[in-house]
Amino acid sequence: AQKVTQAQTEISVVEKEDVTLDCVYETRDTTYYLFWYKQPPSGELVFLIRRNSFDEQNEISGRYSWNFQKSTSSFNFTITASQVVDSAVYFCALSEAGFSGGYNKLIFGAGTRLAVHP
Amino acid sequence: GAGVSQSPSNKVTEKGKDVELRCDPISGHTALYWYRQSLGQGLEFLIYFQGNSAPDKSGLPSDRFSAERTGGSVSTLTIQRTQQEDSAVYLCASSTGLAMIYNEQFFGPGTRLTVL
């Protein structure tokens, strides 16, 4: 069965601190996708990144970076020099490859609520 | 073009009443998903529609929940005899539904359901 675990329920940091959000996944598929979504207080889900299981290269986008390690089934997300606007709930998610009929059901973790204080 | 739209944005109902939540996917998207976000439960998959294929209802929590997709476009999620534990934000997403490639899901703004 597929499962995503975000062990950190809430994290509180002061602005400019670096923060890492952990994500551990379980799947029997050899081909799958991993995602991070941001949900700000306004409620909409904002897509941040998608990685496929064949690409373990770490990715950096501005202050955001992602560390994908298949050996530990982890896909961690780091925000460098956090800002108040980063305050949100962050979800990690897993999807099978969907090669059959384009089906890509997302399995979400419980989310990590990040509060960045000035 | 327009994104995924959902209505109503908020719904307050009394326990035992039936409710209908509507999702209008992006035009041309054949795949449609419903998810539920309950307090403390994260986001959970409810049901998936793809074209004329039989839907995947494996995520529906009870037989009080049902969904239809008419004409391959608009979908309605119906909850009968609502209970307080049905209070949640119901999110709809759509995608192109093409085989052999990854299909990005685009999420709607959600319907917040409160059962008193």
What does this structure look like?
The complex is a heterodimer of chains A (118) and B (116). With 118 residues, chain A is mainly β. Chain A has no helices and twelve strands. In chain A, strands 2, 5, 6, 10, 11 and 12 form a six-stranded mixed β-sheet that branches. Chain A has a four-stranded antiparallel β-sheet with strand order 3-9-8-7, with no helix packed on it. A two-stranded antiparallel sheet of chain A has the order 1-4. Chain A starts with a strand and ends with a strand. The mean pLDDT of chain A is 90. Chain B is mainly β and 116 residues long. Chain B contains no helices and ten strands. In chain B, the strands form two sheets. In chain B, strands 2, 4, 5, 8, 9 and 10 form a six-stranded mixed β-sheet that branches. The relative contact order of chain B is 0.33. The model of chain B has no long low-confidence stretch (mean pLDDT 90). Classes of the chains: A mainly beta (118), B mainly beta (116). The interface between A and B is medium-sized, with 24 and 31 residues.
**Helix content, binned percent of chain A:** under 10%
Largest sheet of chain A: 6 strands, mixed
User: Which structural class should the secondary elements of chain B be placed in?
Assistant: mainly beta
- Shape descriptor of chain A: globular
Mean pLDDT of chain B: 90
Report the uncertain regions of chain B: none
Residue windows where pLDDT falls under 50 for at least 5 positions of chain A? none
Q: CA-to-CA gap between the ends of chain B? A: 37 Å
Assembly type of the shown chains? heterodimer
Number of helices of chain A: 0
List keywords for this structure.
heterodimer, A: mainly beta, four-stranded antiparallel sheet, B: 116 residues, mainly beta, six-stranded mixed sheet, 0% helix, globular
